[in-house]
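Input record (one chain):
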Amino acid sequence: MVKHIIIWTLKEELSSQEKLAIKKEIKNGLEALKDKIPGIVEIKVNIDGLESSNADLMLDSTFENIEALKNYAISKEHVKVADSKVRPYAKIRSCFDFEVK
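The corresponding structure, as predicted from the sequence alone:
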């Protein structure tokens, strides 16, 4: 299996209320992909970070294999969510992928 972790920091000009609404939209959009894209084992978006966090939200996802992750990245459903709910509001995106042993 392969883990795919993404951490985002949203744009600074967004208000706290806007950030909360955007985080909920991102969570709903990405978590809904589990039943739409083959190869996703688990997908969870954490939006309630502690005050010690320096990022706004985190995607924690698991895929059957590297091919499933690659297919997810280019799938029409994923690109639609990324283009409409994530990319317009994200300032920083960090990714860490690794094999689960």
